[in-house]
Sequence to fold (116 residues):
Amino acid sequence: MLNHETTKNVELPSSNFKSKIADILKNEGFIKDFKIKSENNKSILLLELKYHSGNPVINAFERVSKPGRRIFSSAESLPKINNGLGIAIVSTPKGVMTDIDARKQRVGGEIICKVF
Fold:
């Protein structure tokens, strides 16, 4: 039996910050790929979502830090997401990275979102 996976794309206005998050999601295996295309002098981020056995790989994408309430964490107190099955994306002085990389480099920062 052939598995015909449906390919779903998501388009959103692009920024350097969003493309860094998309790069992390791709490296961690949450999305297939992403592209940045220009339309009418505006850059658009095109995400190609990933599916496994017909189910989306991303079960939840939860924003943690909001403009009205910023959430910061030290390297030691970064949360473990879904017992290590998910990731937190952290904006650190060394750039945007996963909670795992932030712990390895011993840097804290603003917790942007959780993905699992």
